[in-house]
Task: inverse folding
């Protein structure tokens, strides 16, 4: 039975002498087509794809000045470098802060809610109660300038902090840097790394 199926399968693939020139011509045309397409792509000039605009949300600092998250990040890193560099024995310091997410804002919303109860009874004496609740929300806008009323703003969440310092090879200095960053940023210990600056 297996031999019979094998013969039937090979019979399908069997090529006669009359079909051979046609198959050779078709394979040659296919090969030349693929070759032309590949050669054409080699001589084409690469097209420059438009770069997407970088989006950087705007946050308001403690002075009321609006700045992007990138500016806030650079300011935070520079401030940390300045203050950590003042610790005795630290030397030159570089700080990198990585964020898990950007700032979040909550806006005031007027919520209107309606509730409708429906009670239906069928012929068998059963009762079915349906409760329908509809809620609509509308963002509250300040009169005059049409800006939404902000209820709460959270600063960007910090994913991790890397501190590279000349004096970090001393375990006591390393611990001071570690505790200073942990205290200043309120970041869990496992998200802070303190390393010695290379090239010394």
Result:
């Amino acid at each position: 039975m297996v031999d019979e199926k094998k013969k039937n399968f090979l019979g399908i693939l069997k090529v006669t002498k009359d079909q051979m020139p046609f198959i050779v011509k078709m394979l040659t045309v296919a090969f030349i087509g693929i070759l032309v397409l590949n050669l054409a792509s080699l001589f084409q000039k690469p097209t420059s794809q438009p770069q997407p605009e970088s989006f950087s949300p705007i946050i308001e600092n403690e002075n009321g000045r609006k700045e992007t998250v990138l500016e806030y990040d650079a300011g935070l890193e520079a401030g940390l470098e300045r203050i950590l560099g003042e610790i005795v024995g630290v030397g030159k310091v570089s700080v990198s802060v990585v964020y898990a997410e950007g700032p979040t804002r909550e806006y005031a919303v007027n919520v209107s809610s309606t509730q409708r109860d429906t009670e239906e009874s069928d012929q068998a004496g059963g009762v079915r109660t349906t409760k329908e609740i509809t809620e609509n929300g509308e963002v509250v806008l300040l009169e005059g300038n049409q800006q939404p009323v902000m209820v709460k703003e959270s600063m960007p969440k910090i994913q991790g902090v890397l501190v590279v310092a000349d004096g970090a090879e001393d375990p006591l200095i390393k611990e001071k840097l570690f505790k200073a960053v942990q205290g200043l940023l309120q970041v869990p210990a496992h998200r802070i790394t303190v390393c010695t600056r290379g090239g010394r």
Notes: The helical segments are 2-13, 20-43, 69-84, 171-185. The radius of gyration is 35 Å. The longest strand covers residues 109-121. The chain has a mean pLDDT of 78.
